[in-house]
């Protein structure tokens, strides 16, 4: 349904130019979104996929292993959309010892994303309201160190920003001016917490994501915060017990459609086209996560059985394998610490895994060696390749 423009254009001055900025109407849309027909089918399919995804936390052993790595994959993908060139291995190396040789600014950016995600979920689970203050706290963690830390972390912008182009005068899109942010964000906060309008949580998340990206309230990090809000909303509403749904890979793979549909909502009011795209992304992403989790479980089970056949060497090797499942990039010192094995015993156990091709040493050093669980990383790396 094409409702026409979903906001108003206002003239403002930036430097010596007159610029047209866009101020969105409050949510929900008028007339209301049409949840019948194809959208209802898409919504049901997305809910079924989310149900399967949520069941991972009870049906599959080792959910925490998967969650640890999957959260980091999402952090990487979301940062890649913003232009980082880091890899999953870079991030995991950085986390164990801030390993030299990795692109520090890029890794810091991804590491910040993990911290922001963990902080937001901890606050919500502790009973903190879903509010603009929480959004600012998430942003503060996101830009805490490294690139972007000079762009008012944790504070809504006090100056004009824009998307595309070199200045507002030639930008592709210019969000509301800073003096209108309190009204825009106050209305969004009310919408995020409404329970009386009959909107399914998935629809609320879809609408809120567009609204947040349209308001663009920070000088940097808006895309990453906007993508995090989707997962936070689903966890806050109890649809997911664990933060296992992330749409960054889908948005990355369909980047042109993503930006086109955001513009289409603003200029034509076609919320239904955006909803169809969003719900398709939810279903595909949830099903993909279920598939990845099951593949990893099958991998862990097969490798466990191989190790059990190693006779007297099996005991320490199995404990080392458990450590690698928790951290697929790890040092021998960390293996010894987490398994409570002596360093020589941990080293011997790791050698069993290396002999079987399960683990591989990646530094070439004689000391401070780092081992990776290659097949595990192969599953996680799917979709994270940079051009």
Give the tags.
single chain; 15 helices; Fic-like fold; 2 domains; Arc Repressor Mutant, subunit A
What's the number of extended β-strand segments? Answer: 5
CATH fourth-tier homologous superfamily of the largest domain: Fido-like domain
Helix content: 55-70%
What is the H/E order?
Answer: EEHHHHHHHHHHHHEHHEEH
The CATH level-2 architecture of the largest domain is identified as Orthogonal Bundle
CATH class of the largest domain: Mainly Alpha
Widest β-sheet, arrangement of strands: 3-5-4
- Shape from CA axes? elongated
How would you summarize the topology of this molecule?
Layout (H helix, E strand, L loop, with lengths): L6 E8 L2 E8 L12 H23 L3 H19 L6 H10 L6 H22 L6 H11 L38 H12 L8 H15 L6 H15 L11 H6 L1 H14 L2 H38 L5 H13 L2 E3 H8 L3 H13 L3 E3 L8 E4 H8 L6
Antiparallel strand pairs: 1-2, 3-5, 4-5
């Amino acid at each position: 349904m094409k409702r026409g423009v979903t906001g108003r254009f206002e003239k403002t001055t930036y430097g010596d130019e007159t610029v047209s900025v866009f101020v969105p109407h409050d949510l929900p849309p008028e007339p209301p979104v049409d949840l019948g027909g194809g959208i209802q089918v898409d919504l049901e399919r997305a809910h079924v996929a989310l149900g399967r995804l949520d069941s991972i936390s009870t049906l599959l052993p080792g959910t925490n292993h998967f969650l640890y790595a999957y959260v980091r994959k999402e952090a990487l993908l979301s940062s890649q959309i913003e232009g980082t060139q880091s890899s999953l291995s870079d991030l995991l190396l950085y986390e164990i010892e801030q390993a030299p040789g990795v692109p520090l600014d890029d890794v810091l950016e991804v590491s910040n994303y993990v911290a922001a995600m963990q902080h937001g979920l901890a606050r919500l689970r502790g009973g903190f309201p879903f509010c603009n203050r929480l959004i600012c706290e998430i942003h503060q963690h996101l830009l805490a160190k490294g690139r972007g830390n000079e762009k008012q972390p944790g504070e809504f912008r006090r100056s004009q920003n824009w998307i595309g182009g070199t200045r507002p005068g030639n930008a592709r899109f210019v969000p509301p001016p800073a003096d209108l942010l309190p009204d825009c964000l106050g209305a969004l906060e009310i919408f995020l917490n409404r329970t009386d309008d009959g909107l399914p949580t998935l629809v609320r998340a879809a609408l809120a994501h567009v609204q947040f990206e349209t308001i663009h309230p920070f000088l940097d990090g808006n895309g990453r915060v906007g993508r995090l809000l989707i997962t936070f909303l689903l966890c806050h509403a109890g649809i997911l017990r664990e933060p296992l749904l992330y749409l960054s890979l889908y948005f990355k793979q369909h980047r042109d459609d993503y930006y086109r549909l955001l513009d289409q909502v603003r200029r034509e009011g076609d919320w239904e086209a955006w909803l169809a795209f969003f719900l398709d992304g939810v279903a595909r992403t949830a099903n993909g996560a279920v598939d990845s989790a099951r593949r990893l479980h099958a991998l862990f089970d097969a490798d466990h059985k191989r190790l059990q056949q190693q006779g007297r060497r099996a005991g320490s090797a199995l404990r080392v394998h458990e450590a690698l499942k928790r951290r697929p990039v790890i040092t021998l010192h960390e293996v010894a610490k987490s398994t409570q094995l002596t360093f020589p015993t941990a080293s011997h156990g790791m050698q069993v895994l290396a002999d079987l091709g399960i683990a591989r040493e990646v530094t070439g050093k004689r000391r401070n060696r780092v081992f990776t669980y290659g097949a595990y990383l192969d599953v996680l790396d799917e979709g994270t390749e940079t051009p």
